[in-house]
Amino acid sequence: MKIPFNIPFISGNEVTYINEVIENKRFSYSGVFSKKCELELSKITGCKTVRLTASCTSALELAALAINIKEGDEVIVPSFTFVSTANAFALRGVKLVFVDINPKTLCLDENLLEKAITPKTKAIVLVHYAGLTENIEKIVETCKKNNLFLIEDAAQSIDSYYQNQHLGTFGDVGCFSFHDTKNIHCGEGGAILINNKNLLEKVDIILEKGTNRAAFLAGEIDNYTWQSLGSSYGLSEINAAFLFAQLQELKTVTKKRKAFYSLYQNLLKPLKEKGFIDFPETDNNHNAHIFFIKLENESKRDALINHLKKQGISAYFHYLPLHLSEMGKQYKYIKSEKDFSASESEKIVRLPLFYGLTKNEIELVGKGIKQFFTV
After folding, report:
1. Which of 24, 143, 328, 331 could form a disulfide with 150 if both were Cys (CB 3.0 to 4.6 A apart)?
2. Which tens digit of pLDDT belongs to each residue from 71-88?
3. 278 lies in a domain?
4. Where a domain ends, among 198, 216, 247?
5. Interval 187-197: pLDDT, tens
6. How many CB atoms lie within 10 A of CB 217?
7. Do residues 134 and 105 make contact, with C-beta atoms less than 8 angstroms apart?
8. Of 203, 228, 247, which residue sits at a domain end?
9. DSSP codes of every residue in 253-305
């Protein structure tokens, strides 16, 4: 492809820091670079307590254990999300309740929550699609009113804010991804933000395979033993070293991606004004993780993707709604008058957006899209 969809960012200091890990001869979780990353993430997000995890999937599974999810409990999840959001809770025997999305934000429709809540509901999972979101206040209020945990799947949201507050800090915990498809990464990695202080001790025990090893390492106890269910959720020190090099350049990465995002908006605005496409209008308080456009229907979407492919440009659609999947059909689905999770997912085209992209390449993408509508 002349213009790939994504090339993972490299800061230039990754190898230097990895060599330091090799010299230190400490490779497992909670080494020097793990602590550096957690401190840096705390500064970025404003959350005092951060723990690195092997992935965002691990962070979500950890969250499910921390809030003591049990078989028979119900957890509300948007249907339009990656499968990890659902798996983390389904693994614990939970009855998932899928909820439709707001077509404007592609995030969970807060106006449908009351219909989804039952006496068995234990938590709501809010997914911040593309680092964008709205009306978090209503979701937080609903959780407090019904005594529910709020888990934020902020996989796509590093350096994204809502009313100047970092996403992932509104709920009880926030879960982040540093997969190599994200703005910054370490190949595979994640983090969990613990906003609810009552969950901190549980998180540390679960993270250490269900033992109180963290307290032992802190000198608080003489030995450590099995305390609860847990797993090996921590991030390796080599991955942490790689991630620290990336975190140091986060603001630079975000600034450049936002510039590309704005360029796409300006180039494609005439097509939006004519009604050929649509894309989000934002307050620029996001991290420009994804630039997507929406077409009239699935047929038009597929035709545009094929048109761009012939020109050497990679563009993709995104999630298929979980409630329509073979596994997801067993769970309840609360939808609006129109099934937006299904209809909107059929319209989306994600365009190339990564740090190493050039202005000329974005203009070529814009040109290719304009040609599609003039043929």
Report:
1. 143
2. 999 999 999 999 999 999
3. yes
4. 247
5. 999 999 999 99
6. 12
7. yes
8. 247
9. HHHHHHHHHHHHHHHHHHHHHTTS-B-----S-S----EEEE-SSHHHHHHHH
Q: Does residue 326 sit in the same domain as residue 291?
A: yes
**What type of residue is 213?**
R
Which residues span the domain enclosing 105? 14-247
Distance CA 314, CA 296 (A): 20
Q: Are residues 96 and 160 in the same domain?
A: yes
**271 and 368 together in one domain:** yes
**Same domain flag for 57 and 117:** yes
- Residue 137 makes CB contacts below 8 A (sequence gap 6+) with none
How many domains is the chain partitioned into structurally? Answer: 2
pLDDT band at 64 (very low <50, low <70, confident <90, very high): very high
Find out whether 142 and 170 touch, Cβ atoms under 8 Å.
no
d(Cα 239, Cα 5) in Å, to the nearest integer?
24
Q: Are residues 176 and 193 in contact, defined by beta-carbon separation less than 8 angstroms? A: yes
The bridge status of strand 332-334 relative to strand 121-127 is unpaired
Kindly report the number of other CB atoms within 10 A of residue 329's CB atom. Answer: 10
Closest to 14 in 3D by CA, of 245, 355, 249, 252: 245
